[in-house]
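Reviewers asked in the last cycle whether our approach scales beyond single polypeptides. To address this, we selected a multi-component target totalling 468 residues and predicted its structure end to end. The input consisted of the following lines:
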Amino acid sequence: MREVAFDDVVNAVKNMIKTTATNLPEDTLKALEDAYEYEKSEVAKEVIKQLLENAKIAREEERPLCQDTGLAVFFVNVGEDVKVVGGTLKDAINKGTELGYTEGYLRASTCNCFSRANLKDEIGYNLPAVIHFDLVEGDKIEIEYAAKGGGSENVSRAKVLPPAAGKPGIIEFVKEVISDAGGNPCPPITVGVGIGGTFEKACISSKHALFRDVGTTNPNPELNELEQEILEEVNKLGIGAMGMGGTKTALAVHIEANPCHIASLPVSVNVQCHSSRHMHITI
Amino acid sequence: MATYHLTTPLSEEDVRQLKAGDVVYLSGVLYTARDAAHKRLVDLIEKGEELPFDLEGSVIYFVGPTPPKPGDPIGSAGPTTSYRMDSYSPTMLKHGSRGMIGKGKRNQAVKDACKEYGGVYFGATGGAGALLGKRIKSAEVIAYPELGPEAIRRLEVEEFPVTVINDTHGGDLYQMGREQFEVKS
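The resulting structure, written as structure tokens, was:
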């Protein structure tokens, strides 16, 4: 059994958080540069230009890209032949999160869901992190991280369609969610779509779809085709950057699909703003 | 589409000339407030009590910044989604406020209040927090420090870039822009 020190996990998580808060990942940057070329609206082009300039300032001056530095969301694949010594893996991820958010001068955005009181003193700075664990073969720990802002999360939605709705029903539902959202989720967005599984499996898949590098090709040809079809439909909506009208509402559509019950067709749409701050590491 | 350079406090004349889609560079003072602070301000107005700042001609910025790094006045400071302030904004405009800065669409009551009282809803680029934070020259918490990022701050800004979304004539850039680029199937 391979052993990994608690503090090594803490430091790795902390560094991921600090890095992504000020450095827009290359894939997102490239997608925004492409969007600038593609966009036909002068107003929307100006918005994208500001976003590119913002990314440059953030990187050079180590300032957070956005004041909404998100809730910290993790997908963690734990090998069955590795264990953390000196504490639990979950505690290490939470401690790394707290240190990353405090040392990086990031915002503490978690609050009590009823009183709305900030929980930074009660639970910890921007804690708890949202962590999805899975067990895999091997002796490595793979940690995927994204900072998830509130504006794009607020427009996300899930629905269980009747199986007869099929792909046309899925496309209609995604269009409806994005159309209703307008400029609120800070377009140009990435659209994460989870299809199949159970209700919660679809939701988690739609979240995980957003961890993929923006605009990379889906290795499954059927899903790749559906992604391109939905992307084209969404970009016909005319919403544009920050909702000011334009031809580039979405940078990409990412789909994850799962086998599902013979009676259901769950679909979840999770939206990511233009500032797709994500990273993954293997320990 | 015109470009203006305006200094706060804004007069009724300042805002009545603006049209949806115009670009405005604001200088002077902005006051920050999100949902929690708006609730308190509107409560004070309804009770007829004194507010922590003068509403006349004021521009309210919907923002909850990141903490400043040592030596900086403020951290990253881009707009938050505005609809959460929809139930409070008409009261603010009725009592003299002239402008709001946020992102995302407003309801009809806010648009109507803009026309009736002479107010404008500006959009700033969401997610451009580093760029916008640099246009803020000073920041001071003037009320409700216990609200943390949601406390009311007095910001001094220079050439703060915004776009007119809802003007005093019923114009709505979100609607106009989308109609222009929507491809109907």
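Helices of chain B lie at 12-16, 35-47, 89-94, 108-117, 129-133, 173-181. We regard this as preliminary and will revisit it once experimental data from Aim 1 are available.
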